[in-house]
Design a protein that fits this description.
By secondary structure, this protein is α/β, with parallel strands linked by helices. It has 11 helices and 11 strands. α3 crosses α11.
């Protein structure tokens, strides 16, 4: 997982990004709507019955300033009761258990998970980010059935995204500066491409899951870019050519994680289960 910095997430708790409005314009859905679709739950699902906790973790490089407060705010905007535990690490986890929390959100240098204590299952950030941004791209594009999509980056998020986009009916190509990583995804039906610049210029539907800054001059006119990759930057030329660029530093992935983890309990109640 890419380690965030405090400046990247400073606007998340107060929603200074106005993400719902930006997503409604690009995709027709709010963060919660995208998360519910990603989790396979109905649009009117009520999440108020879940109590969650964001647990600060000090191991490795330590706590990222504002991270737990950001996660807390994201989960509360979904309609769950949430708080940041006073304690950190194991103490924080034990406090969340004692408080009767159903969902525990916690991250170290390598993993960020949403753990459902009722079902003893978790959702990790790579899965949640890939699913959320794939759903966002699908909605922004008016569906992906039979359409050509390029995934930039064949790491954990990119590899999951390839699978999700293929499940949505897209013809998926993938590119990575380490060609062997893209080649491995050919086994599941993706088309690996070695010329990154040419691949980008030839596609108008892109999911950028790499720490790669795309030069504006290679972005095709009318492109829709679902862009979880960090660092995130598009120059004026790229922004003028793109129809939509979907990005936030944390919220979409974290929301999908929380909702999907709640879904382990909720899906048991759905009529077909």
């Amino acid at each position: 997982m890419t380690r965030l910095t405090p400046d990247l997430i400073e606007g998340v708790p107060d929603d200074k990004l106005d993400l719902d409005q930006r997503l409604l314009k690009a995709t027709g859905k709010t963060v919660k709507g995208i998360a519910l679709e990603a989790a396979g739950l109905p649009e009117d699902t009520d999440l108020s019955g879940f109590k969650a906790a964001a647990i600060p973790i000090t191991s490795g490089m330590g706590i990222i300033g504002g991270f737990s407060a950001s996660v807390d705010a994201i989960v509360r905007r979904l309609g769950m009761d949430c708080h940041v535990t006073e304690g950190t690490d194991v103490l924080g986890f034990s406090q969340a258990v004692a408080d009767g929390c159903d969902i525990m959100m916690m991250a170290d240098d390598r993993m960020f998970v949403a753990y459902n204590s009722r079902e003893r299952k978790y959702t990790d950030n790579s899965w949640g980010t890939a699913k959320g941004y794939s759903v966002a791209l699908k909605n922004a594009a008016g569906g992906l059935e039979g359409k050509d999509v390029l995934v930039i980056g064949a790491g954990m998020v990119g590899s999951w995204a390839v699978r999700f986009l293929m499940e949505m009916g897209a013809n998926v190509s993938v590119t990575d500066i380490i060609h062997e990583k893209a080649d491995r995804l050919a086994k599941i039906g993706a088309r690996p491409l070695t010329d990154i610049a040419a691949a980008i210029s030839e596609h108008t539907l892109l999911l950028n899951a790499a720490p790669f800054i795309i030069p504006g001059e290679i972005i095709a006119e009318g492109s829709i870019i679902s862009s979880p990759g960090v660092p995130h930057y598009y120059d004026q030329v790229g922004r003028s050519r793109a129809k939509a660029i979907i990005h936030d530093p944390l919220e979409i992935g974290a929301a999908v994680m929380a909702v999907n983890s709640a879904g382990y309990s909720l899906r048991k109640r759905l009529p077909d289960n």
